[in-house]
User: Fold this.
Amino acid sequence: MSTTVELPDADETCAYCGSRIFDHDPICVRDCNDDCGSPTYFCNYACLSTYVDENDLMTGDACEWSSDENDCC
Assistant:
């Protein structure tokens, strides 16, 4: 899966709050399980985290852990 890295426009806005991303600490996110489509930009980690939480994007995407296993730390 290769992608082309391009600098976003100077006026690119955050996908969550609508602020200009370069006024903050921008983050670029791509869904590389779906052909590494268009990037989504967030102005900081707080907006990314809130966006993930509000859209239930972690549901079913993490390893499952059980404290009942014998080789647990």
Summary: Residues 45-54 form the longest helix (10 residues). The beta strands are 27-29, 40-42. The helical segments are 45-54.
